Amino acid sequence: MNINGMDYNTQREKLRMPEYGRSIHLMVEHCVALPDRAQRQACAEKIVKIMELMFPALRQLPDYKHRLWDHLAIISNFRLDIDYPYEVTTADKIQRRPEPLPYPKHRIPVRHYGNLVFETLEHIKSLPEGKERDELTRLVANQMKRDLVMYGNASPDNERIISDIAKFTDGLIQIDPKKFTFEFIVIDKKPEEKAKKKKKK
Q1: What's the rounded Cα separation, in Å, for the pair 162 and 171?
Q2: Cα-Cα-Cα-Cα dihedral sign, residues 194, 195, 197, 201
Q3: Which of 173, 124, 165 lies closest to 147, judged by CA?
Q4: Among 47, 58, 102, 199, which has the highest number of CB atoms less than 10 A from its own CB?
Q5: Pick from 128, 121, 132: which is nearest to 169 by CA?
Q6: What pLDDT, on the 0 to 100 scale, is given for residue 6?
Q7: Quick one: DSSP state of residue 171?
Q8: Gap between the Cα atoms of 50 and 65, Å rounded
Q9: What is the CA 124 to chain-centroid distance, rounded?
């Protein structure tokens, strides 16, 4: 929307480093346009001092001055012709976005348990009988119970969990339901049910 006399940020040029604000960017543009190199140098040094005052926390970093000059180079889009006190030819790396991490695409038998549960079950299969295997089995069984609660928001079936552990460990881990005690997990009510109760009050 264009309204005479009104100046909107959305209509302005996009800032290269928004954290410094438009005023710093305008100062840098003025500095770039100065015809005399000595004037540009003096102007740039003053701008860097202002930038330092804006972010005093940067002083805690050992290379904070180098960073400030890098930022100045980025804001000017590397057009500022001065004698930089630091090497800034690689400053563009700061504004580069990192390459996206590849999303793990492991196929798992049951999605609501999650990949970590199945990795743990695979590890359990490699353990000899003993306290370590029993404790890890206890932990993963209770985690599976929590996963079922979160997935379906319903009462989890302990027998189902015992059956799943046996199934996904190729029958190696057989939990005796008479000897095994699951943790008590409180099932939180659905948000809409809570909202209904509040309205009734």
Answers
A1: 11
A2: positive
A3: 165
A4: 47
A5: 121
A6: 62
A7: T
A8: 12
A9: 31
Q: What is the pTM of this model?
A: 0.48
CA end-to-end span of the chain, whole Å?
46
3-class state of residue 18 by DSSP:
helix
C-alpha span between 83 and 162 (Å, rounded): 71
- Cα 184 to chain centroid distance, Å, stands at 32
Of 49, 51, 62, whose CA–CA distance to 23 is shortest? 51
Distance CA 33, CA 152 (A): 63
Among 35, 40, 99, residue whose Cα is nearest residue 73:
40
d(CA 84, CA 88): 7
Please write down the long-range contacts of 118-124, taking CB distance under 8 Å and 24 or more positions apart: 118/168, 121/165, 121/168, 121/169, 121/173, 124/169, 124/172, 124/173
Summarize pLDDT for 35-71 with one digit per residue, the tens: 999 999 999 999 999 999 999 998 999 889 999 999 9
Alpha-carbon distances of 45 from 69, 70, 95, rounded to whole Å:
9, 13, 22
The answer, yes or no, to whether residue 153 has pLDDT greater than 60, is: no
